[in-house]
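Researcher: Next entry in the queue.
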Amino acid sequence: MNPDISIEEFDGKIYKINIFEPSDKAVLTHYLNNYKNGIYKHYKKDALNVIKNYIEHKNIEENTNIVAEDVFQHLLFEATNVPFPVNPNYNFKFIDLFAGIGGFRLSMQKLGGKSVFSSEWNIAAQKTYRINFGEVPFGDITKDKTKKYIPNNFDVLCAGFPCQAFSIAGYQKGFTDTRGTLFFDIEQIIQEHKPKVVFLENVKNLISHDKGKTFKIILEILEKKLGYKVFYKVLNAMTHANIPQNRERIFIVAFDPLQVKNYNKFSFPKEVKLSRKINDILEKDKQEDIFYYKPTHPYYTELNKTMQKKDTVYQWRRVYVRENKNNVCPTLTANMGTGGHNVPLIKDSFGIRKLTPKECFAFQGYPSEYVLPNIANSKLYMQAGNSVTVPLIERISEEIIKVL
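Model: Structure for this entry, 404 residues:
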């Protein structure tokens, strides 16, 4: 067996001739992740073709004699030897759309779910997803060739669909923005596959966008066109998940009443006391120098004058420093890694610094064993800011599963 075999090799960029499709790593890892259950049959034909093409290419290119069984066993080990492997004793199946770095998957999988399909177009997020779950998500879900890989039978559709089109921090173009129309791809998938439950997350501003017209369209599609019974509510991570981050999001849960007769027993989780503090999450040791502000930095004088406490989080607001006096972290955003007024700052025993990516993931409720890949910090900041808050997703998922 060739010890150099790796899932990363199934990438056309490695070769002078692009013999592999962008979806090859996705279909292969979906096949490997489902090898011990019946779902693997859905991906088997294409996955075996990928392996066959790979072996032929390697044997010609390197004048070797790699055999299919060796390749398969090696790749199977790589796909399953991950921090969050698939639970073979699953109780329900779900798909993970706009999967990001797997916040929905962590929660659903922990509660006995099995992901049978994932999609995420961002390459850096795909890398983070694969290193933790052993699976490369499929790419652009707007393409029919991506949608065709979705298996027929699953129980829950999860989607933290892109929110930039509705965000108060953006231009709020909504359905006139291409990203806003991604909801209609969700609509197509619901119409085609009729899952028992649809579980969506977006920014709070989705409700008020365009004087409520945008949200009204979404509700009408789910209720009148698709026939689902819809529940929605704005929840905050610090009031409903015991996470010290002020993060409000809207959650939409929709049931197919023909498949889920007791849908009306669903309710969103109640408030819980916030017992965790900022310092429960912040790292205690000195961090890398790149996170600290040097005295020569143009903001340093103002930062040093204002930032006196070690138990709070600050933000640079263009020309002044603002303390978050509610003793929680402000809402983490996707662009905080690019500098400016979105960077959360703290004062520790070693100086004034930014939150590290690891801390940002912790403020989103990711477990300590979650692995951050070796990619640019700016990409990790973006991934944390774009993510769902895992414990809140888990609490809502618990309520969904009670009904199921």
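Model: Residues 49 and 345 are 50 Å apart (CA to CA).
Researcher: Noted, moving on.
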